[in-house]
Amino acid sequence: MNAAMQQETFVDGISFWAQRLPGWEIAGAVLAGRADPPVVAGRRPSPELLPPAERRRAPDSVALAMEVAAGACAAAAVDPAGLASVFATTHADLAITDYLCETLVRAPLHTSPTRFHNSVHNAAAGYWCIATGCHAPYTTLSVHEYSFAAGLFETLLQVASDGRPVLYVAFDIEACGPLAPITVSHGLLGAGLVLSPVRTATSRARLSWSTRPGGGAQSTAARSANTELIGGNAMAACLPFYEALAAGGGPVTLALGPDLLLDVVLDSCAPAPP
Amino acid sequence: MPSPQTAAEQALAQLIVSAVNLEDVRPADIDPEAPLFGDGLGLDSIDALELALEISRRYGVQLRADDEENRRIFSSLRALAAHVESQRSA
Amino acid sequence: MTAERSVAGSRAPEHYSPGRMTPFSINAFTVTSALGCGLAAQLDMLVGRRSGLRANDFTEHELATWIGRVGGLETAPLPERFSEWDCRNNRLAWLALQQDGLLDAIARARARHGAGRIALLLGTSTSSIGATEEAYRRLTPDGQFPAALRRPIIHTAHSLGGFVQRALGLDGICATIATACSSSVKVFAQAARLMRCGLADAAVVGGVDTLCGSVLFGFNSLELVSTEPCRPFDVNRRGISIGEAGGFALLERDGAGPWLLGYGESSDAHHMSSPHPDGLGARLAIGDALARSGLAAADIGYINLHGTASARNDEVEARVIGDLFPATTHASSTKGWTGHALGAAGYLESAISLLAIQHGIAPGNLNTTTLDPACGPQIRLDNAPLARPVALSQSFGFGGSNCVLAFGTERPH
User: Fold this and answer.
1) For chain B, which residues score pLDDT lower than 50?
2) What is the DSSP string of C219-274?
3) What is residue B66's predicted lDDT score, i.e. its pLDDT?
4) Distance from B49 to chain C by nearest Cα, in Å?
C-alpha cells in the first residue's frame, strides 16, 4: 500500500500513565532520558470523572483508560463532550476474562452481571462517554501486537476524513490466572492523544504520516531503559512514538500489520496565536 | 437517629457493601429504614441483579429482577433482611 | 483529575453535521447463520418464515434458553495450513468465506487493485473467547492450559482479523473492531473513510461471532435471556435468544451495486447495558445515516431494527421509529429467525437488508403474535412486498455504541 503523505495533523494533547510513569510530566522526562523514573510505583488511577455508580463498578482497565483520556483532553483544553474517539486495547480487561472463564467452569449461574457488562471490549469507551456526556461516536479495536499503530492510524484517518479533532486512547492491563503465561501482559499502561486537523492554541507538535509495505524489522526500536521499565505490557509498542514526542520530534516507524508500516514524522510547533 | 441494625441486618449490610463495592460506606452506617435505591444508597438495576446473585449464593434465596414484589423487597435494608429471613425459614 | 479541571477553559468542538457521501458498491456479499450457509438459505427461511432457533444444546451446564446455532462447526476443523488459528469462531469465518462466490470476487479485486490496496475490517464481540473458556475447562493438573490450546493468537480479539487476513492473503490495513453489538456495522463506516481518503481501493468488511459460555451465562446474569424463542416487539416478550453468524462483503468505488449509501454513528452516554430512555443515540445515528445518504425518512422502504426482544430495547426503539418514520415504512427485527448474533448481528442484518432490497421482500417479525402498544404502524408482523428498494439497518450495542447503515439498489444521482 503506497499512500501519499496525508494532510497535516496536530498533536494538541498528550497523556501517559504507567505505574512507574504516572503522568506525562514524569513520563516525558523519563522517556527522553532526562530523568530517572520514580522509585515508588503510582497508585491505580481513580476515575473521578465518573458518576458514583459507574465509579464503583469501574475495573482497572476502565480506570486506566479514563485517566489518560481525561489527561489528553485537559492538555488539549478541549471539551470531551463533543469529541469523537478511538480506543485501542489488545486484550481489554484480562482480569475479567480470567474471572469469566474461571466462573464458567466452577459455577456458571453465579456469573456477576456487573463484571459481564464490563467484559465488552468497548467498556472503557462506553464509561468515557457516560462520564463526559459525549454523544459523538467512538471506535474500539484490536490488532494484536499492532494495536497501538492501528488505533493511531484509525485516529489519523478520522481526523483526515472528517476534519475534526479526535481523541485517541490506547491501554492494556496485566494478565492473571491460567491465561497469564499465554496472553502475556504486565502492569498497567495507558497513553492518550488529542489530534487536530488544524493548529490550535494548544498544538505542540505537527505530525505527517504515510503507510508503506514492509516488515516489523524496519520499525523504530524503543530505548532499552524504557523497554525494561514497561516493555512487558501488551501496549508497549507505543513507546517509540511517545519517546519521539518527549524528544521534541523525530521520525517514527511503527509496524501496522505483518507486511505494513506506518511512517510518522513529528516536529515540535508553536501553538497557534490565541 | 437511625434505629440500630439487627444481627441479620448487619450481615446483610456487609454483603451489600462488598457485593456492589460501596467504597465510602461502612456497613454499620446503613440506616436500616432508608431506601437502598435511588436517593438512598444510590443503587440501580445492575446492583439489584448483583445483590440478588450474592443473596442466592449466601442464603440460597432466589430473587428475580422481574419479580413485581421487588419494589417492596428491595425498599430498605430492613425490608430486604426480613424477606431473606422469611424465605430461608419458608 | 476532576470534571472541573478537565473542562475548565476548554474549547468545545462544534456539533458535527455530515454532508452527503459518495456511495460505495457492494460487489459481493455473503452470510452464514442459524438459517444456513449462504444467501439462498437465508432468503428461503425468511420467505418461508421458518426460524433457525432451537432449544439450547450448546452449553454443558444446563441453561433453559433458545439459541441460533450454526450446525457442523464441531466437526469442521480449519485446513492443516491454518491449524494455529483453529477454533469455533475462525471455523465459522472459514465456512462463511466459502459461500456465494466471495473468494472469487475477492481474488478478482486483488488482481485489479493489489493485495495491499484492499482493507480488511471485521467486527466481533467475543471473537474466539470460546477457546479460552475451553482451555479453562481442560486445565492440566498443575493449572496450565492444555498443550493444544497454548496458542496466544486464539486467546485475543484479533484472532478473527488475523486469521481472515491470512486466509485471504491480504496485506493492506486490517483491524478487528469490537464495539459489542455495533461492531460489524461500524466496519462499513471505517471502510468508507479509508476509501474516501484514498488509503484503500476496496475493502472486505464483515463480522463473525460464535456461541460461547461467557455470553450465554453473562446475558443470563443480566436476566436478559428468554426461556422461549425470542419474540421481538411482542407485548409479552421475555428477552433475547443468542445466536451466531459470520459473513463478509466486498466494497469498491465502482460496480453494479447494491450500494452503501450512508452511515451514522453515535454514543448514548447513558448506561453500559441499558439504552438511553429517549433513544437519543439511536436518533443521532439515524439522522446522520440519512444525511450522508441524502435520503428523507419517507424514502426508506425497509428498516431492519435492532429489536433484541429485551424489554427496554424494543420499547425505546419502537418509540424512535414511530417518531421519525411515516406509516408507509416497513420495519421489523429478524432476530426471531436468527437470534441475536451480537458482534456479527449488524453484519448479518445488513446482509438481510440487502436481500430485502434486491428481492423486493420486507421481512416481518417472527414468533411475535401481539405487538407492544409502543409500536407504531411501521413495525409489522408479516412479510410484505417492498415498496422502495432502500433500507436502513440499525444496531445498538452495550457501552451505548450505535450505528445505522443505509443501502439501496440504485446509485443515487
Assistant:
1) none
2) HHHTT-B-SSS--TTBTT---B-EE-EEEEEEEESSSS--EEEEEEEEE--S-SSS
3) 64
4) 7
Put simply, the answer to whether B49 touches C274 (Cβ < 8 Å) is: no
**Test mutation, B22, B43, B47, B66, chain A, max A CBs within 10 A:** B47
Instruction: Determine contact, residues A159/A43, Cβ cutoff 8 Å.
Output: no
B1 Cβ contact partners less than 8 Å away, ≥ 6 residues apart? none
Q: How many helices (H) and strands (E) does chain C have?
A: 12, 16
Prediction pTM value: 0.96
Q: What is the pLDDT of residue C139?
A: 98
- Element housing C164 (H / E): helix C159-168
Q: How much is the ipTM here? A: 0.97
Residues of C that are catalytic? 181, 306, 340
Q: Least CB-CB distance to C281: which of A74, A91, A135?
A: A135
Residues of A whose CB is below 8 A from C196: 161
- Tens of pLDDT, residue by residue over A62-104, are 999 999 999 999 999 999 999 999 999 999 999 999 999 999 9
CB–CB of A143 and C10 under 8 A? no
Note which residues in 71-90 of chain B have CB less than 8 A from chain A. none
The helix/strand/coil state of C90 is: helix
Residue C196 Cα distances to A9, C193, C290, C375, angstroms? 17, 5, 18, 38
C170 DSSP 8-state letter: -
- Structural contact between residues C130 and C59, judged by C-beta atoms closer than 8 angstroms: no
